[in-house]
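Ticket opened by: R.M.
Priority: normal
Category: complex prediction / small molecule

The reporter submitted a protein together with zinc ion and asked that the result be attached to this ticket for the collaborator who will pick it up next week. Submitted input follows.
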Amino acid sequence: MQPEALFGIALGIVPPWEVTEVNFSKESNRLDITIDFQRGSAFPCPVCGASAPAYDTTEKTWRHLNFFQYEAYLHAFVPRVNCPNEGCGVKQIQVPWARAGSGFTLLFEALVMTMARDMPVNVMARLFSVSDTRLWRVINAYVEMARAKEDFSDVKRIGIDETSTKKGHNYVSFFFDLDKRKLLFGTEGKDNETVKDFVADLKNHGGNPEQITDAAIDMSKAFIKGVKEQLPNAVVTFDKFHLIRLMNEALGKVRAEEARLFPDALKRSRFLFLKNPEDLTPEEEARMDTMVANQCYRSVEAYAHKLNLQNVYFAQSRQEAEALLTQWHKQTSKSTITLIQKMAKTVKDHWSGILSYFDSELTSGFLEGINSLIQAAKARARGYRNPRNMISMAYLIAGKLKFNKLYA
Ligand SMILES: [Zn+2]
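Result attached by the on-call engineer:
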């Protein structure tokens, strides 16, 4: 058997195509495979499928899977057919080894999609000596194709979360199906328009906004407004992690202000206040005592309010939670620390959404995983150049997309 025929079998090339030339160059680190078709062959018209004769050809090259450490390329003169059927005319045919318009073979793209789940795209780009922009184009195309087949008709409970993109002043909003624990939709921005965009996408996938019974969101005005306008039957639950984060931010500011008055006692103490008392080491406990002794009362008071707020979430029922939250509010609203008073007001303003956490069954288990998935997507998309790429990576990691049915 000729090596050309062997490569033809390995590549799955079938008539009228055949491998006509194989060139291996150790010096240039390449394997070049030329594919040609038998003269006089007919091809199916890409529009109507009728068999039509070749009209002319264009030379094209595709990057293929590496042959050991050597880069492999496929070359072919791809014909245009002149279809006799009305409305068709001269059209470029589809080759069986590559997606229309792609400079990679299907096998190469399959490898890219498999590796992209576990390896940052810029690392993959170095490994293959291919620009990351080209790899992102492949990832975006497949994610789009797989999303086009998604069915959202049974979505009932959603969670919305926002994350900043790498430069910090742009945001991306993510919409999750809390029951299937998967990413439904991601879009740039964090205003109420993003909810409108989500609803449009939901409808495009057979979903019904009136069927959404619950929405877990953070306390941003934009999401509250968006949900109220776009999801008429959704009960709002405020994300527990967002509330605790706000509380920690307030505590951090109180501590920073006080550190100016007591620089020695509060030096490098930021992380101390983020810990729970039971996690403090004996040295850290001793430091806490020093702070009290040094009259760092405001930091210590804010820390106590933080712990009490966390404690609300250990309640076994809504009733118990409401009792604990009422007590917390009573203490914080009479605090002399402005930032703590402000926090008390925030909680009062979002009272029912905070408490609906306890009867909407949106238990922490549902929400906890979301943030780690987004962080994983951001890490995998490292150096992702634009938010769209980051969103694609999030779909790939958290979208539970089915790629096996794309060519079915
Ligand atoms: Zn045709």
